[in-house]
Design goal:
Strand content: under 5%
Order of helices and strands: HHHHH
Structural class: mainly alpha
Largest sheet: none
Distance between the termini: 42 Å
Mean pLDDT: 85
Number of helices: 5
Shape: elongated
Number of strands: 0
Low-confidence stretches: 119-123
Radius of gyration: 17 Å
Helix content: 40-55%
Length: 126
């Protein structure tokens, strides 16, 4: 994710006071973007979705989850006054990571084969 996407979810993180309260001289949330990506990868490994380094994934599926994880990291650092925002960010992260299909390259051939692409169909009756 990027700071612009983060600010669309959490506009309160888009001010100099918040940035410098987190760390003196801070101008972007770049470090937290990397931390969030590492958390996402760890969570995907725990769920057995990522099985090897050679797998390719569509990173855009995790932009929202990344933003929520960054907010969680920031609100955790700010402590008790931000516990409500922290709880909301944790719930939003969990919801964003609760995908039915992850579109993962399981055989590490560099493309998403038809077998790996899981489409779902639903039938409706009247």
């Amino acid at each position: 994710s990027t700071d612009d996407i983060l600010y669309s979810f959490y506009p309160d993180l888009h001010n100099t006071t918040t940035l410098t309260s987190f760390e003196s001289g801070k101008t972007t949330w770049d470090e937290q973007h990397y931390m969030a990506a590492e958390h996402i990868v760890r969570d995907l490994k725990k769920q057995n979705i990522i099985k090897s380094r050679g797998q390719i994934m569509d990173w855009s599926m995790f932009e929202a989850a990344s933003c929520h994880k960054i907010a969680e990291i920031v609100y955790t650092a700010f402590g008790r006054p931000y516990f409500e925002q922290l709880a909301e960010a944790k719930k939003a992260y969990k919801d964003a990571m609760n995908l039915q299909f992850f579109d993962v390259d399981l055989n590490a051939n560099g493309s998403l084969d038809p077998v790996e692409r899981r489409d779902s169909m639903h039938f409706v009756r009247r």
